[in-house]
Amino acid sequence: MTTYQRRVLIVAILASFISFLDGTVINVALPAIERELGGGLAGQQWVVDAYLITLTAVILLAGSLSDAYGRRRVIFWGLIGFGGASVLCAIAPTDEFLIVSRGIQGIAGALLVPSSLAIIISNFDGPKRARAIGQWTAWTSTAFLAGPLLGGVLVDFASWRLVFAINVIPIALTLWLLRGIHVEPPKPVKPQIDYRGAVLGVFGVGLPVFALIEQQRLGWGNPVVWGAMVIGVLAFAGFIWNERHVKQPMLPLSLFAVRNFWVGNLATVFIYAGLSLGNFLLTIFLQQVAGYSATEAGLASLPSTIISISLSTLFGTLAGKYGSRWFMAAGPVIGAVGWVLLSQVTPEANYLTQVVPGTVVFSLGLVMTVAPLTAAVLGAIDPERAGIASAVNNAVSRVAGLVATAAAALIVGDALTTGGFSRGAITTAILLVAGGVVSAIGIQNAKRPAKV
Q: Count H helices, E strands: the chain?
């Protein structure tokens, strides 16, 4: 890795880390925010959901902008927007002001996520690319460990407002490092924004995400929920029609003619649905049934984070050397074994004998999967389209997770019990195995990026 490539990788890691950190750090600050600004439970939910909805809704447009105008430029404006929104969150005088500011943060975060991976794809090739993706995965995973711990310290010993204000420090560092990244040369043909596709895409992704989130609070019978879902589905259908007929589409549908891209995204649906369902149920079970404190439940994810940090680079390197196929096939199956072990947990959920073994096995399977999956999906596409390709994969993983979480009640019932958790853990294992089977059958090694 050259000095320049190392700088690119650090920028990519920091840009993603900032976005991921803010998605995890907020949860521990919610009680303190509610005590000062009010808003009740609905207000706390919207402080979280406003960020998630806008990030997911805008991410396809952000990936398209990254391909059209360059990764460096999009990352720059994403950092500026995220920093400004963070300051607004830190000084928020009311709950409503904070919710709007969080929505702005989500839009800026959408600019950071696909561009950070796209800038790696643009500057690395072959085995070095897979290794770099492994390092990106390893270091960005620290956000999931650092978020709750950092947030807890700031809330307990200072103020919840510092949870947002502290973003200014890594943003300033990333902006300084970004100065050393080459500006991409202008394209020979001036990019044209697919405005109709952009609007349809935002509503077609954003409204179903809104419905999936709000149904947990309002129920599917609420007209706001089912109305948003219906309008969103129609908008998404219009988006697909538009992309088929417009001259310069925001999302070229020819991407899905590339085998590893569509197979990798199909595997992503099963794998990330399983991850989201299992982790959601485990966190609730440990607190509501086993009687863990919030901190103790959070520490249950510690093995996963440590294993990811330790081994993601290794498996990224191995995938670059031997191909992603068998890592994507074996990893989810090993992860499924971990969830089968967790399905045997008793109401007491002894941490060392019942939680740790399943969590460690699952985490090993997960770390075998994530970096090779990312390398296979993005490595199949020409680097010029890496922004939109990354955005698609990110959107697929988020929507799959939301659908699985929304369906949790159908699996476990109205109230989570030990039996309900066991059914959820087995369902998680089945979803992971499905992802492994899809990968084993469909993923091909050593494919050159396709021009689309």
A: 19, 0
Structure-block tokens of residue 72: 């460096």
| Cβ within 8 Å of residue 107, ≥6 positions away | 54, 55, 58, 81
Q: What is the sign, positive or negative, of the torsion defined by CA atoms of 348, 349, 352, 357?
A: positive
Structure-token pair, residue 445: 């090694």
Q: What is the spatial distance between Cα 418 and Cα 349, in angstroms, rounded to a whole number?
A: 10
Give me the phi and psi of 415, to 5 degrees please: -125, 135
- Asked if 225 contacts 207 with a C-beta cutoff of 8 angstroms, the reply is no
Task: Reduce the DSSP state of residue 376 to 3 states and report it.
Answer: helix
Q: Which amino acid is at 105?
A: Q
Tens-place pLDDT, residues 350-397: 888 888 899 899 989 988 998 888 888 888 888 888 888 888 888 888
Print burial letters for 247-285: b (CB count within 10 Å at least 16), e (below 16): eebbbbeebeebebbbbbbbbbbbbbbbbbbbbbbbbbb
C-alpha span between 244 and 144 (Å, rounded): 38
- Looking at residue 301, its amino acid is S
Is 120:314 a contact under the CB 8 Å cutoff?
no
What is the reported pTM? 0.83
User: How do residues 39-90 score in pLDDT, each as one tens digit?
Assistant: 776 677 788 778 888 888 888 888 888 888 888 889 999 999 999 999 999 9
Helix (H, G, I), strand (E, B) or coil at 381: strand
Asked if 225 contacts 215 with a C-beta cutoff of 8 angstroms, the reply is yes
Residue corresponding to tokens 């089945």: 430
Name every residue whose Cβ is closer than 8 Å to that of residue 57 and which is 6 or more positions away in sequence.
110, 202, 203, 205, 206, 209
Count the neighbouring beta carbons within 10 Å of the beta carbon of residue 216. 15
40 backbone φψ class: left, alpha, beta (φ>0; ψ -120 to 50) = left
In this structure, the number of other CB atoms found within 10 A of the CB of residue 245 comes to: 8
